Amino acid sequence: MEHTYDFDLAVIGSGPGGQKAAVQAAKLGKRVCVIDSKQMVGGVCVNTGTIPSKTLREAVLYLTGMQQRDMYGASYRVKNEITISDLLSRLQHVIGREIEVIRNQLLRNHIELMAGTASFLDPHTLSIDDESHGMMRTLTADKIVVATGTTPARPPSIEFDGVRVLDSDQILTLEKVPDSLVVVGAGVIGVEYASIFAALGTRVTLVEKRAQMLDFCDPEIVESLKFHLRDLSMSFRFGEEVQSVESSGHGTITTLASGKRIAAEVVMYSAGRQGNTGQLNLDLAGLEADKRGRLVVDEFYTTAVPNIYAVGDVIGFPALAATSMDQGRLAAAYAFGETANELHHLQPIGIYTIPEISYCGRSEVELTKDAVPFEVGISRYRELARGQIIGDSYGMLKLIVHSDTHEILGVHVFGTNATELVHIGQAVMGCGGTVDYLVNTVFNYPTLSEAYKVAALDVANKLRAVARITNQMLTSEPSLL
């Protein structure tokens, strides 16, 4: 028996994953709606996550004059007293413009945007708490995509007051730039905000219960970041667990399990994220979330219920806006039988610290563990004319190349425009190119992209040296082998 539904696809959540799922389905000629709160158009990404933090970072880089200090001196600043108002004015402008872009994109693709909160009544039926009309309504859909994102996880032992003890969303509500800050959690969000406030002149202490931060990144790159964060007077407490946080009108005291006590004006907790699935009534759809509120999906982004898909942060790692966008596009394509390809192994990771980090492919640690023969080429920004021009003397680009096939196995970048530069290596890897292409091609001069040429030549010279000595050994007396 054939069913008639109100929509071919209903998307819960208007963040990057939800947007792209909706647009992809609309491009396939499907009837599509997107449901999200009126205050959250664009999702966490636009309102409290990716866009705000990256805009804040850009404002800090400009107002502090950090990128010019190599040339104009350590005391150089565009503005001496930087206020929260200086930072938030840029923030609100960007968020407002981005929301308009999203609304326009949905409108021109004939996607209905519903203001409200959705929950399941059954696998094909949603109840909508309609904010626009102050009433409840129901709708049916053939396929449903859950793209509800996440919120900061809050340990029950910590009392968040929104003034002295904050989560990573509330950090944007500060009334002034704090003189001192404790950041608990050295994941991507924690390290990004820690570096932003350290650049503003805040004395930052980063507390992490693991022995290292960003342990999925190349260790050499992480060490370079730590060096520069220490240069900004940041302190690190690795292998330390927070026992309690006490706050008053005078400040906060963070007590660690080891007995150490850290005084600071503000504490920001960045202890992971919790999936926004608590209000969905998943059980009525035949679904169940894990203890972090996340949904499990297969390689087609299908949940345990065949017509329900999930994408973005709500399905866990890598929980990035960029990967969420692609997941949404792919899920919609799979849902309606459209051919789609996914390059799992070539997803770039971008971390917007100061300085920023980005990589694509595998690391030296992974390749060594798997006994893959490789050679490494390094280019440092200080060797590049463009690096001197922009005042970045610390940036670097690392190429990891297979010793035998010359295939590029990984690209790791640290410094100015790292998140832009990584895509050159990603494109070469995706097209099956080798390091020989980078050796033989011509890059504009002076540019940071030239780092690829320098690193490729470094690899080529090392491989040539190995080949030359190996040939000499093979042609020498057998007794010398």
Question: How are the elements arranged and paired?
Answer:
Elements: E1 7-12, H1 16-27, E2 32-36, H2 43-47, H3 50-64, H4 69-72, H5 84-108, E3 112-122, E4 125-130, E5 135-146, E6 150-152, E7 165-167, E8 180-184, H6 188-199, E9 203-208, H7 219-231, E10 235-238, E11 242-248, E12 251-256, E13 261-264, E14 266-269, E15 273-275, H8 282-285, E16 308-310, H9 321-335, E17 349-351, E18 357-361, H10 364-369, E19 374-380, H11 385-390, E20 396-402, E21 408-414, H12 418-430, H13 435-440, H14 450-475
Parallel strand pairs: 1-2, 1-5, 2-3, 5-16, 7-14, 8-9, 8-14, 9-10
Antiparallel strand pairs: 3-4, 4-5, 6-15, 11-12, 12-13, 17-18, 18-21, 19-20, 20-21
Helix pairs in contact: 1-9, 3-5, 3-6
Give an overview of the whole structure.
The chain is an alpha/beta fold. Helix content is 34%, strand content 24%. The strands form five sheets. A five-stranded mixed β-barrel has the order 1-2-3-4-5. Strands 7-14-8-9-10 form a five-stranded parallel sheet, covered by helices on one side. It has a five-stranded antiparallel sheet with strand order 17-18-21-20-19, sandwiched between helices. Strand 9 (203-208), helix 7 and strand 10 (235-238) form a beta-alpha-beta unit. Helix 1 runs parallel beside helix 9 and helix 3 packs parallel to helix 6. The chain is globular and about 85 Å long. The termini are far apart.
